[in-house]
Amino acid sequence: MTIDKSKVAIGFIVAGVLTLMFGIISAIIGPSVMKNQVEKNTVIDPKNDLSYTMWKDLPVPFFMSVYFFHVLNPQEILKGEKPMVEQRGPYVYRKQCRKENITFHPNSTVSYREYRRYFFEPSMSVGNESDVVTIPNMLVLGAAVMLEDLPYAVRLLISTTFKTFNEGPFLTKTVGELMWGFDSKLVDFLNKYLPGMLPSTGKFGLFAEFNNSNTGLFTIHTGRDDIRKAHKVDSWNGLTELSYWRTPQCNMINGTAGQLWPPFMTKESTLPFYSPDACRSLELVYQRAGEMKGIPLYRYVAPKTMFANGTDYAPNEGFCPCRQSGLLNVSSCRHNSPVFISHPHFFNADPVLLDYVLGLNPTEEEHGLFIDIHPLTGVPLNVSIRLQLNLYMKRVSGITETGKISEVVMPMLWFEENGYIDGPVLTTFHTNLVILPAVMEYMQYIFIALGLVTTVVAILVYHKVKRSSNRAAISTPFENPWVCTTASCKSSTFRNSFPAL
Fold this sequence. Notes:
The chain contains eleven helices and 15 strands. By secondary structure, it is α+β, with helices and mostly antiparallel strands.
């Protein structure tokens, strides 16, 4: 059976054109398909196994590393000399978070409470929770500043109370006691006769109210009606704005809850989030692009204006009364105790703060906070939130425990909450959001190239076949009836020419 090569070539031309068209159409609609898939998988929905699990249970290890500023010269400080501190740590705790009371609402929002627990990790720490550290006594030095405007006689009475309960200006306690609480007769007395003065009714510890607690009732957008709203806070404890600060702008609850962000971020995007622990909304800015194990990321960092005072940055005037830039006064949401938040070692703060305390050495690498985000999905790949807790101390007449202390913002400790995607979650994330999109993109170009090559080659073959057919038709000889080539023809002709023979 003879194969018609021209028809085969035409078949390949059709196949090549179809492949080319498929590749071009894929290239045109591919980004839209990818966008729709990202939107579908970043909406907060129990049907989205990967993204919902990441939001609900944080399936990656998360740790809190705590560094104490051990006071080396407490007696000299009481005489008016500069404080000298030595960093002790890290003391590392594994953080376990879980969301409970998850309730979806018809307006495309979801409410929940997130509970957190901390577990000490000896293998990751420099020592044990039994290590002893000396820090300023917030109960005494903090109360002294809070009560300095009371009549002198009342201040004398307060000082007598401190002595009665054997409370001095500095505490020497174990790490575990400072973190999670210790028994204090003064605390028991205050809770009994001045209820509400202290943040907790049990043991007094710097992180006592953090462990086995929740961050409040968050209501956030699921992104179902508008993906640009995904994870953004709708309300916190029923509030759409705060009342801690002096201006409406500072009281705004902006951004997300600080765990996930809306997808499709650009270098112009910022990273706003509300932090109940800082009592305000914070906003990070783009610094640079990078990669984490092949996954593209954008790094966002804290701008220098984050904790700037109202003089250096006017929008922050609402967070005042302020001191030097680099300090956030959180007394308004911490029972009026003279507590300030800053970056560790006063990084990005007014350099004068370093002159008041010996033993600090700020660097961006060790003390700057950052969040690495996968810009397509808004999922954090690597997080390091670093903050420092400081106590404002000064001499208060009538309260002899303050001695001759010079006015100073005294660092007590700093902590880092960090975590990053790894293991099976990273593998799944890399496969679904890096490898598959890349394969789809390469397949588009492969189809276009394959279709183009097939079409061109098939057209050339078709033309070659047609030329060969035409050439064969032209070169075939015409038949001459007068020309005999066979023996029978020759015999018959001879007889017809000479019939008589």
